[in-house]
Amino acid sequence: MDSSLSPPAGRAAPEAAHDSTRVAGAQPVSTLDRYFGITALGSTFRTEVIAGITTFLAAMYIIVVNPAILSKTGMAFPAALTATVLISFFGSCAMGLYARNPVLVAPGMGLNALFAFTMVHGVGMPWQTALGCVFWSGILFALLAALNVRRFVVEAIPANLRYAISCGIGLFITVIGLVNARLVVGDPVTVVRLAHLSPPTVTFLIGLALTTVLVARRVNGALMIGIIATTLMAIPVGRLWGDGSAYFPKEIATATLVNFHGFFAAPDFSGIGQLDLLGALKVAYLPFIFVMLFTAFFDTLSTFMSIAEAGNMKDRDGNPRNMRQAMIVDSFSVLISGPLGTSPANAYIESAAGIAQGGRTGLTAVVCALLFLPFLFVSPMLSLVPAIATAPALILVGVFMMESVARIEWHRMDEAIPSFIAVVMIPISYSITDGIAYSFLAFVVLKLFTGRVKEIKPAMWIVAALAVLLLTQM
């Protein structure tokens, strides 16, 4: 197991194989421990709680960002916020209690953009009809999950591509952190460049340095401590020095990074049940149902494969732990997203932040879910944690997930090239799904034209065909 993901000294570390992840001689000490297997998996109640808090802090931005995107379609911002909180709570609870995996479920970034800017603005689809498309894609996803299709897909993906996908997603998370911190910005000439130092970026760099030291010293809860410390250091920005307005959407931009807008805001349930089921079944809209299905399916699959590699959470066959249950939960989450009034939910790669803190059981997901629920009523409190505070955690998660790059067979070009494409294209395209699709296509093409067609399993042909369909619909 990657030593950077190992528990702090004094706590038993999970071993490599599935059965050996259960600590020899360890006995559960409570019903909660027995249900989640906390002691058996080498974790502790305290570690699981800290991991849940860390995951929440890394992903809490979605409570504001998702409604901000969906409100562009004409949906009421408060209603979209309520739907975001509800689906994050129900989906994450189900992931923790049923699939028993330490994975957050929330409205997917990318899927919400597809919903708002392609389906509603691009095609002119009413947002109620777009919610209907979300529901039907959830029905199809549930069918795939019930038929255990993921087993054939996972087993068809070669080990080298699994390692590469984990690395690519790690780099993607790092890029998200760098962009959120505005350390890397766009440039018309060089495409991207480092930003000039400013009070916010200096604050971020100090927070990153502090978090890095804590991680290197194996301090339990290092990422959470780093988020809190960076938030405190960001309070003077916009008050005593600098301007943080660039870190917010124009509509809500303020000079101060850390803001207090009160405690209470009543939830808005007006978006629930507004989906148009029959309108979504028009022939012209069917491609969007399938695009949502493929995107959600591949995002979930890739997220669990990369998390399984990073946290050594595998079954006896080397596949992600409780994958069938996890896919059922994800399909359930997509299914109820439309009726609740939001774009599709899926497993969040930010879950790696909690796993990096030692989270190994479903209790991590349950803790994270419970932290979402109060924001039905106290959403103004979200403005207290700025983007630069969570950026160091995301960047370091990328470090934790790079261990498997050494396991790729770089000397075999027919394996190395598709793997390289996955590692590079996922962060560069800013899309997990697109990067994986290109790597799968490269794998099939190389095996086909180098005389190694027998190494392509039947399911991989189907996945490659779906990848072509997905990429041509983007």
Automatic annotation (TrEMBL):
Transmembrane regions listed in the UniProt entry: 49-69, 75-97, 129-149, 161-185, 197-216, 223-241, 284-307, 328-349, 361-378, 385-408, 420-446, 458-473
One term under GO cellular component: endomembrane system
Subcellular localization(s) per the UniProt record: Endomembrane system
Topology relative to the membrane: Multi-pass membrane protein
GO MF term (any one): purine nucleobase transmembrane transporter activity
Domain of life (superkingdom): Bacteria
Pfam families to which the protein is assigned, alphabetical: Xan_ur_permease (PF00860)
Broad class of where this protein is predominantly found: membrane
Keyword terms, alphabetized: Membrane, Transmembrane, Transmembrane helix, Transport
Family the entry assigns: Belongs to the nucleobase:cation symporter-2 (NCS2) (TC 2.A.40) family. Azg-like subfamily.
This protein's name: Adenine permease AdeP
Organism: Pandoraea terrigena
